[in-house]
Amino acid sequence: xxxxxxxxxxxxxxxxxxxxxxxxxxxxxxxxxxxxxxxxxxxxxxxxxxxxxxxxxxxxxxxxxxxxxxxxxxxxxxxxxxxxxxxxxxxxxxxxxxxxxxxxxxxxxxxxxxxxxxxxxxxxxxxxxxxxxxxxxxxxxxxxxxxxxxxxxxxxxxxxxxxxxxxxxxxxxxxxxxxxxxxxxxxxxxxxxxxxxxxxxxxxxxxxxxxxxxxxxxxxxxxxxxxxxxxxxxxxxxxxxxxxxxxxxxxxxxxxxxxxxxxxxxxxxxxxxxxxxxxxxxxxxxxxxxxxxxxxxxxxxxxxxxxxxxxxx
Length: 313
Ligand code: GDP
Ligand code: MG
Hints:
Blueprint: E1 11-18, H1 25-33, E2 51-57, E3 60-66, H2 76-91, E4 94-100, H3 101-106, H4 109-125, E5 129-134, H5 145-153, E6 160-163, H6 172-182, H7 200-215, E7 225-233, E8 237-246, H8 249-256, H9 261-278, E9 281-290, H10 298-303
The chain binds guanosine-5'-diphosphate (GDP) and magnesium ion.
């Protein structure tokens, strides 16, 4: 009989990233994968769908599920987001809870508000859990970290924790090594060069949404959706047409900006990143359309790919 010893130690599995909005889940994913696959913003609740990031090394493959933050459900869109956050939990081999340590150092009372709703869900699924206390680069006085951790562990007794800076990558290798230890032995789930299951075209529309989040004020970016209308590609050039949906006529003029200045800024920045991502010249054509109450429109949400969850196995 032939011996296939080389495969016996391989570890593979699914890791759900969970945590409050803005904790740094998407940043962590982009840092460990080494490419931007999930959009990041200083405003909470940017990630809308479940984004996968696949990290493959000689002895392991981790499929990370980046989920929208866990928050209260108001609109239909929020309910969709929450459903997708918890579906990740149920399919995961390991759960990674990411918390913003720099926030809790300032505002300790937020620990209870943000962590307790998550604890209840975690108890229900009974998965191996690791806690990453993130943004430690922002905590000037490192002596504050230990009492903070003790406070967090009151809600999650006896759990393992790590200090990381997702932005700078500090502590991330140690955390990955521990995740690998907890993963089951198994075969690769995806080809080694694949970094996400999310289609490139969807990533392209997400880049535009990221820029809208960056430049639009207040609540406006939450009522914006981006859809790819047309995508034509040859050897050198990709021509992409996208529609930006807003829910009110007044929002349309804000997205377009004075003499088109906002749309131009968003388009130029997104195009530059798209060119880097696709390794081709990009011609990006952006249109703005009003679609009243789209966040309540279930069939439209589904058409945008929101609310559906991929079947991983
Ligand atoms: P998510 O909602 O949990 O996915 O959070 P994001 O990844 O979108 O990050 C929210 C904000 O926190 C963004 O402005 C990030 O740049 C910032 N951020 C994330 N991780 C770190 C970190 O380790 N250090 C610092 N200083 N900022 C971070
Ligand atoms: Mg996110």
